[in-house]
Amino acid sequence: MRKVTREIGLVTVFSALVLAAAGCATYTDSGEAYRRSIESMKEGSPYFAAVYLRTILTNDPRSPYAPPAAFGLGEHYYDNHDYFNALKTLSGYLKEYPQDKGNIFAKLLIYKIIDEFQIQETSDSPESALIKEIRKELFSEPLFLIFYDKKAPRS
């Protein structure tokens, strides 16, 4: 009886330790910074939100919060007409997180900047290659049809 009670006690303690460790693993500095950035946006303080997002990218670029932080920071720059930093941040986002689900939206923002400033794709620079890739992807027939179907019914 004592042996069974002791084993149950050990299993209970082990389970509690595992659950506590799992809880601590999800409560990280990056997670807290991301939560604070969202709260700052809701409170109407986008500049504080940008600081929190930049903190995530600087301190923990491999965090699961880093891709949305990079996109959010690029979008913040775009919304505030800081197109240089928007291009820099969004193109870095595309390079660092090529499989992230927000890539098409980052490319769309980059294309809007390119279109607004009439940036040409004539040079052999990395920016030129990015422009060509974005144009190819944004104006490919399947993607065009997806957006077309969502926007207006076909006649």
Describe this structure in words.
This protein has eight helices and no strands. Helix 3 packs antiparallel against helix 4. By secondary structure, it is mainly α. The radius of gyration is 23 Å and the shape is globular. The protein has helices spanning 2-26, 29-42, 46-59, 66-79, 83-96, 103-117, 126-138, 141-151. The protein starts with a helix and ends with a helix.
Mean pLDDT over all positions: 75
Percent of residues in helical segments?
over 70%
Per the principal axes of the C-alpha atoms, what is the gross shape? Answer: globular
The largest pleated sheet is described as: none
What is the radius of gyration computed over CA atoms, rounded to a whole number of angstroms? 23 Å
By DSSP, the count of extended strands is 0
Quickly give the structural class.
Answer: mainly alpha
Strand content: under 5%
Number of helices: 8
The H/E string reads HHHHHHHH
Q: Ranges with pLDDT <50 over ≥5 residues? A: 13-26, 144-155
Give descriptors for this structure:
77% helix, mainly alpha, 8 helices, 155 residues, 0% strand
Could you give a short description of this structure?
About 75% of the residues lie in helices and about 0% in strands.
Give the SSE layout.
Blueprint: H1 2-26, H2 29-42, H3 46-59, H4 66-79, H5 83-96, H6 103-117, H7 126-138, H8 141-151
